[in-house]
Amino acid sequence: MAGTAAKASVAPAPAAKGKVTETKDAAAPRALAPGAGVQSTAPRVAPRSIGSAAVHQPARSAVAAKPARSGTVASSGQKATSRRSLPADDPLAPQRTRWLADAVGGVAKLATMLGVSTSQPSRWATGEERPGVIVAPLLIDLEHVLARVRLVWSDPTATTWMSSANAHLDGARPIDVLALHGPGPVLEALDAGAWGGAV
C-alpha cells in the first residue's frame, strides 16, 4: 500500500483531454489558405478565358512604355523628306512657251520680251530645260495677260501693245510693268484703254 501510494504521488496527474488537445492546437501552426495573410511579390495575373477554360496570364504593367516601332519612325522620316520645298517647276512650260512664241511672232521676240537669251525659250519649248524661279512666274503672267489683250485686239496689235509705251502706265511698257509689279496694273491699263479708246 505504501509503494502504491508513492507511485501514485510521483505520477503526474493526467491532463484533461480537452486541455491537452487545446494545448496542441495552440502550439501547432494553423494551416493557412494559399496566399492568405502573405503579400506575394510575384506579379498578379489576370485570367483569360480560352473556350471554357480559364488561363492565367501576367497582368500588363500600367506604367510600362510601349516600344516605338521602327517602321513608324522610318515612315515619318520619309514623309518629312517628301514635304520639303522643291525648286519652282512649271509642268506646262513647254506648251506655254510654244503658245507664247507663236503669239508674239517667234522665239526671238519672246526672248526679248522676257529679257533672256534667245536659246532659252527654245530649250523650254522642247522640255530640255525649265524656266527658273524668276522667269517661270513671268511666263505664266505673260500668257494670262496676252490672252486678255487678244480679246481686245488681234495680232499683231496685241503684241505691239505689250511692247509699247502706255499712257495709263505713266509711259512704261506693259511688259516691263508686268515683270516688276505683276499682271494687276497691266490689266487695269488694258481695261482703261479698251473702254476709254486710248492705247
- Number of β-strand runs: 2
Could you give the distance between the termini? 163 Å
Largest sheet: 2 strands, antiparallel
Uncertain spans: 1-10, 18-29, 49-56, 61-65, 67-86
For the residues shown, what is the average pLDDT? 72
Treating each run of at least 4 consecutive H or I residues as one helix, how many helices? 10
How are the strands of the biggest sheet laid out side by side?
1-2
Helix percentage range: 40-55%
Which helices and strands, and how do they pair?
Elements lengths: L1 H9 L6 H11 L17 E6 L2 E6 L11 H13 L10 H12 L2 H8 L4 H8 L8 H15 L7 H6 L11 H8 L1 H14 L3
Antiparallel strand pairs: 1-2
Provide structural commentary.
The longest helix has 15 residues, at 135-149. The chain has a domain at 93-196. The protein has helices at 2-10, 17-27, 70-82, 93-104, 107-114, 119-126, 135-149, 157-162, 174-181, 183-196, and strands at 45-50, 53-58. A hairpin with a 2-residue loop joins strand 1 and strand 2. It contains 10 helices and 2 strands, in the order H-H-E-E-H-H-H-H-H-H-H-H. A two-stranded antiparallel ribbon has the order 1-2. It has 199 residues and is mainly alpha-helical. Helix 4 crosses helix 6 (119-126) and helix 7 (135-149) runs parallel beside helix 10. The model is unreliable at 1-10, 18-29, 49-56, 61-65 and 67-86 (pLDDT under 50).
